[in-house]
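User
New here, help please:
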Amino acid sequence: MKLVAAFALVGLLATLASARSLLDIDPARVKSIEEYDRYWRRLPAELQYLRTVEQPTRRITNGQLATTGQFPYQAVVYSEAGDGYYSLCGGTILTTTYVLTAAHCVTDDFDRAVTGGIVYLGATDRSVFQSTQQRMSFGNAGIRVHPQYDSTSIRNDIATVRLDTAAIFNTYVNAIDLPARSDARQFGGFEGTASGFGRTADTVPAASNVLMFVRNPVMTNAQCNAYWSTGLVQAQNVCLDPYGGRSACHGDSGGPLAVQDAGRSLQVGIASFVSASGCTSGAPSVWVRVSYFRDFISQNSNYVFRA
């Protein structure tokens, strides 16, 4: 009987190891979403010339290393890009089965949802399997892109992803809070925290293995539009001040901008776009304003907003 039990245990461990290996991704086959030509082809005409500009950095600039459990709501979103490659983006945990991200992170050349991908939760180092991590797949049927998403004008850049397996919430993996339906604040002047994975040096082509973060003031849209003369910043956007060269950057697409409110982390933005001429160029990073899309989130996830 003990021998049978031993064989059963070995079989279970082998099955678990095999299942996990299917969710392991070769870092050499990962590119940040902005390294794909389709990202640039879809941008507005006034930004097309920037695709040929040498980009000083593609990372959380002048940031700090995150500690284990500091951002339990952070997700790493790998979307299938074809030929065994994946695009890298960030995301946030809404519930045990849904993640929030940017539409441009989970769409193809024709703005259609990708075939699927893999999400890492609880990771501070995405290059290794940490005991805090949970990894699960998602399929095309689980991707909900905003029906009015327009990659050319960068409007409605929001999507939800349904996980194939429910996450288990703990100290290292947990949901973010979103602004209540009655919350009309614009959050200008609040200290915002941006977190994500991205390049750690200008000369290193690979994205960062480790989670980083920056803190800077959230701007009013009037302040932000003083930098962005193209009119790209609208009511559905929110901006983070670039003070001190601290900024989110290309590798952080889809990730969170959060503020502290009554002792909880409140997500106010989803990383959408930055100046292609450099993340330390003095232009604010631009984010999707979460509160603008409450109805979309409610209709395309099982997240329940506070009244």
Remarks:
- DSSP finds five helices and 15 strands in the chain.
- The two ends are 57 Å apart (CA to CA).
- The longest strand covers residues 264-273.
- The chain has two domains: 27-50+69-175+295-299, 191-291.
